[in-house]
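Field: sequence (string)
Field: structure_tokens (string)

Example rows 1 and 2, in order.
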Amino acid sequence: MSRESLVFTLGLVVFIVTFLGIPNDWKRLVFAIASVVLMYVGYSLRRSAFMRSFENERGEKMSDAFVESPENNS
């Protein structure tokens, strides 16, 4: 299951659990687990998008390295 699908599925579970007649302790447990998983998946998605922003067309990581050449006092 892709991370995007996991986010959608957990959102659906949270929505459905709200209207089910299950005890509040179980609801709290489901909400706590879903929130931890959503935080991890959200961080993972954000990190992969951030790392993709550094790569160029050839799959190499770009870096802006500037070197100042010393003055030639001859």
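Row 2 begins here:
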Amino acid sequence: MTHRNAEFSRPSWYQGKVVPFVPSGWSRGFVMKTAVVFLLTACLLARASAGSRAESRRAQFDQWRQCMVDKLPTDKAPVFQGCHNTAAGTEMRKFRQGLECVLDSYQLVDRNNVNLARMTEVAPTIAKEELKKAFEDCPKDEGNKRVAKAVKCVIDHLETTCPQLSRSISKILWQSLRRKRST
């Protein structure tokens, strides 16, 4: 019976000591510099790919937002843009602020509350189907009396046919709303 390592033969240069990492003729300084350059390159590539992901998320959000704005009546789009452009904060906060101004243009907003009865009255006058459906359905839930909840309800109705945001983007967008509700 043969030993299991019998077919393994050691190279002729092996003398039972650790083989140095650096091949003969290369200085250790050269190897260290090469390693540093390799690590820096890897870091820069990782950062560049992260930046492109952020840009694609931004483009995806812009496409989603434009789809939502296109569902507003033509006379309300300038109202939305005016508030969106002057609002401060994240892009999602600006978007919600723009929708809040649209609700206010229908005389539905009183401070932090939405007049749900008036919202039902206004619904038949709205030409855009998704917004009309939102104005019919949102007053059915008394919790939508608060502006933030009413805006979220409108968004939920408008986004039904818009391109879906990825889960990570959607999660990021709604985190600020959850924080606002909990305070």
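free_text_note (row 2): The chain has one domain: 51-182.
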